[in-house]
């Protein structure tokens, strides 16, 4: 009989231990989410290009890209490297900026003062660069750096000796996508920075207005331009069309300025620009789901029913996420992570999680819910869904691994990132050439520099994650994965047990 008793007793003890652990985690949730918030913002310091300030905290990084723009007699220093490479791609950088600003607009008041300051610094590091990119009317710098050469090298940004080619689009050639997103970024940032620097905020809004006029007057995708296509593609082609960025830019200008002309634009151009098409996507290339959530604020809070089609599309998108809804068609991994086919899956999880929280906020403020067929969904349910995604990313997953670098005791050690994987300039001041870095790329050793706060692409549809530097789809961090996560973590740091 003893073996039988033991068979039941030890699983019982295990269940009790897991319960105690969960209770402990609940009691320390504020510290857990607060730490993750701090690190998610710190990550952006590791992506900086340009001359680094004295208060740079990611101190294994050094100055880089100090000659950017010199080939066209312009100052194009600053901004962010998008991921683990050394190119400055304007399209994802602008989207990153919009999402950082939206994070502050919706959830900044929930951030500790020090982290709010850090978030605003992260936004301004980008907007300072974006202002340079659109300094000339009807012209936009869409990229700095020749990507083929860059991707054929494995070298630190401080050492890079590849061509820093400047790619620009000038009227009448179109760049509605990059210009529209840049207008959105500047408009959203003008809101985020308004209380701390009103003058700078005004500059951002004025510039956003001008850039949007350029985007709207000369319609088309920037990557259709033969002078740009080979540099932008396949990295950041406009695969989904430029129309969503026009509506997105107008929606942000409406929110930032309150202008009736932008309200009319959103209302009158919704059908022609495909506002109700492909509504279940949100990311650097497709703004539809985010657009519909953003515009819905005016419907649920201000009763602007002429925008009801946007609200209906936002409701429809939320219903696709509900597993018990008859409208559900979102894929989840066995461990519960939102999954989209293709690489860098956590970019989908973080953006969708952000939208869940923002929409829950709008519904809460208007005391409304969503009808998903046989299921009625309210703010609490959406927040609980969001929490499941956050907790998965931070370690409650089949691998027991945090997908945020530097968070918890187990996280990716071999991320696909040049600066992180090569010896720092402080430890190894000697130049490391283009191909000399290959030995570090091919090493099975851990990265010597911890890119704290970086969220990697994450596991596949089977929840499997191999800590492999070469598997960039899973192991590469990006700014646009982290940017929406900042707002998400701000919410949960203040509300660890949402209701």
UniProtKB/TrEMBL annotation:
Alphabetical GO biological process terms: cellulose catabolic process
PROSITE patterns named in the record: GH9_2, GH9_3
Pfam name, any one: Glyco_hydro_9
Entry EC no(s): 3.2.1.4
Catalyzed reaction equations: Endohydrolysis of (1->4)-beta-D-glucosidic linkages in cellulose, lichenin and cereal beta-D-glucans
One MF term in the entry's GO annotations: cellulase activity
Alphabetized SUPFAM superfamilies for the sequence: Six-hairpin glycosidases
Annotated source species: Lactuca virosa
Major enzyme class: hydrolase
Record-annotated active site: 416, 467, 476
Lyase in keyword set: no
Domain annotation Glycoside hydrolase family: ranges: 33-489
InterPro entries per UniProt: 6-hairpin_glycosidase_sf (IPR008928), 6hp_glycosidase-like_sf (IPR012341), Glyco_hydro_9 (IPR001701), Glyco_hydro_9_Asp/Glu_AS (IPR033126), Glyco_hydro_9_His_AS (IPR018221)
Taxonomic superkingdom: Eukaryota
Protein family membership: Belongs to the glycosyl hydrolase 9 (cellulase E) family.
Annotated protein name in UniProt: Endoglucanase
Keywords from the named record: Carbohydrate metabolism, Cellulose degradation, Glycosidase, Hydrolase, Polysaccharide degradation
């Amino acid at each position: 009989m003893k073996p039988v008793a033991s068979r039941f007793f030890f699983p019982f003890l295990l269940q009790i231990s897991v319960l105690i652990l969960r209770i402990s985690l609940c009691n320390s949730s504020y510290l857990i989410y607060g730490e993750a918030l701090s690190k998610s913002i710190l990550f952006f310091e590791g992506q900086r290009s340009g001359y680094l300030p004295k208060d740079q905290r990611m101190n294994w990084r050094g100055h880089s890209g100090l000659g950017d723009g010199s080939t066209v007699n312009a100052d194009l220093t600053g901004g962010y490297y998008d991921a683990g490479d050394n190119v400055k791609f304007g399209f994802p950088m602008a989207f990153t900026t919009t999402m950082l600003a939206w994070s502050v607009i919706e959830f900044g008041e929930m951030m500790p003062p020090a982290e709010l300051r850090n978030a605003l610094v992260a936004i301004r590091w980008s907007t300072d660069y974006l202002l340079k990119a659109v300094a000339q009317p009807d012209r936009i710098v869409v990229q700095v750096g020749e990507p083929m050469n860059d991707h054929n090298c494995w070298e630190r940004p401080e050492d890079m000796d590849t061509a820093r080619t400047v790619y620009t689009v000038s009227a009448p050639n179109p760049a509605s996508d990059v210009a529209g997103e840049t207008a959105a970024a500047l408009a959203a940032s003008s809101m985020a920075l308004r209380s701390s620097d009103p003058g700078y905020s005004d500059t951002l809004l004025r510039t956003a207005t001008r850039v949007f006029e350029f985007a709207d007057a000369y319609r088309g995708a920037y990557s259709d331009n033969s002078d740009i296509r080979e540099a932008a593609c396949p990295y950041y082609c406009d695969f989904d069309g430029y129309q969503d960025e026009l509506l997105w830019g107008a929606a942000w200008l409406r929110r930032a300025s309150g202008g009736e002309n932008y309200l009319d634009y959103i209302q009158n151009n919704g059908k022609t620009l495909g506002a109700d098409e492909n509504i279940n996507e949100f990311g650097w290339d497709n703004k539809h789901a985010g657009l519909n959530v953003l515009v819905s604020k005016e419907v649920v809070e201000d009763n602007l029913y002429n925008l009801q089609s946007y609200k209906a599309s936002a409701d429809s998108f939320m219903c696709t996420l509900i597993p018990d809804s008859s409208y559900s068609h979102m894929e989840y991994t066995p461990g519960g992570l939102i999954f989209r086919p293709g690489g860098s899956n956590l970019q989908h999880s973080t953006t969708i999680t952000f939208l869940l929280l923002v929409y829950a906020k709008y519904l809460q403020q208007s005391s409304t819910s969503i009808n998903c067929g046989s299921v009625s969904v309210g703010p609490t349910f959406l927040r609980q869904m969001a929490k499941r995604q956050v907790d998965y990313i931070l370690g409650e997953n089949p691998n027991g691994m945090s997908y945020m670098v530097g968070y918890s005791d187990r996280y990716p050690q071999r991320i696909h990132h040049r600066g992180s994987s090569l010896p720092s300039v402080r430890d190894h001041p000697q130049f490391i050439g283009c191909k000399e870095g290959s030995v570090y790329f091919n090493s099975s050793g851990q990265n010597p520099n911890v890119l704290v706060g970086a969220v990697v692409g994450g596991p596949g549809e089977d929840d499997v994650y191999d800590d492999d530097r070469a598997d960039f789809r899973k192991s590469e961090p990006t700014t646009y994965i982290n940017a929406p996560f900042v707002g998400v973590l701000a919410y949960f740091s203040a509300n660890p047990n949402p209701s």
